[in-house]
Design a protein that fits this description.
This protein is an all-alpha fold. The protein contains 9 helices and no strands. It comes from Rhynchophorus ferrugineus.
């Protein structure tokens, strides 16, 4: 076959052949609304030939509405930095994250009852967790919402005057994080972020008299929430 005949055959029957033969009519109105598939394709052809902008924005001055703003969003960035000695090394964070992940995998592969309680039974939850360590068989009875609510109660009670988390409170927080399900709901994500920022604020207010060991629980929770729960903008 002659090369020119082959090219002609490919153009007529091959991949170069037009699927739909659509062209712009002489009376084409670019401002009209397409009513058929053919008219829609005509608008596509027009936009392609005219090289219309992919994005069009309105150049408006909205400053006159500033006085009506009632909601202000706080930045997630912690303004005050902690002393250098309180920031954990990458190696320490990697090991902490590995231990946390291994425990989660173990718990996920352990038979446990289906959670059926939406509220903790204690009138003074904060006082209870300060005095009693967490029990696996007890925490698993509570729903995700109940565990998140407990974490929020702890976060609300924390202030920058706290020098450290008590061992029992820290153990409860760690246990809750181990049992939290992914992906996070928006409410759960918000509470985790607020708790992480509280930990960062407390750590930033620790003075040089505080030992590194006393700051490690704060760094541990910052590490787990930021890296395991993908809140990387809050990581060290």
């Amino acid at each position: 076959m002659h090369p020119s005949e082959s090219d002609s055959s490919d153009d007529e029957f091959g991949i170069q052949k037009k699927a739909l033969d659509v062209s712009l009519p002489e009376d084409f109105d670019p401002n009209s609304i397409p009513q058929t598939g053919e008219e829609y394709l005509q608008h596509v052809i027009y936009e392609r030939t005219k090289k219309c902008k992919k994005w069009v924005t309105a150049n408006k001055d909205f400053s006159r509405f500033n006085k009506n703003q009632t909601v202000h969003i706080n930045n997630d960035v912690v303004n005050k930095k902690a002393l250098d000695k309180f920031y954990p090394t990458k190696e320490w964070q990697d090991k902490a994250l590995e231990s946390f992940t291994q425990l989660r995998n173990f718990v996920n592969n352990t038979e446990k009852p289906a959670p059926g309680k939406d509220r903790f039974k204690y009138d003074d939850l904060l006082a209870y967790i300060q005095g009693a360590p967490p029990i696996f068989s007890e925490i698993t009875q509570y729903s995700q919402a109940a565990k998140v609510q407990m974490l929020q109660d702890i976060s609300n009670a924390l202030t920058t005057d706290n020098k450290q988390l008590t061992p029992n409170a820290g153990a409860w927080i760690y246990a809750i994080l181990v049992l939290l399900e992914k992906p996070l709901t928006p409410d759960c994500c918000f509470i985790l972020r607020e708790f992480t920022k509280k930990c960062s604020d407390i750590r930033a207010n620790l003075d040089s008299s505080i030992s590194i060991e006393d700051s490690l629980p704060l760094s541990l929770f910052i590490c787990i929430i930021s890296r395991f729960f993908n809140q990387l903008d809050l990581s060290d």
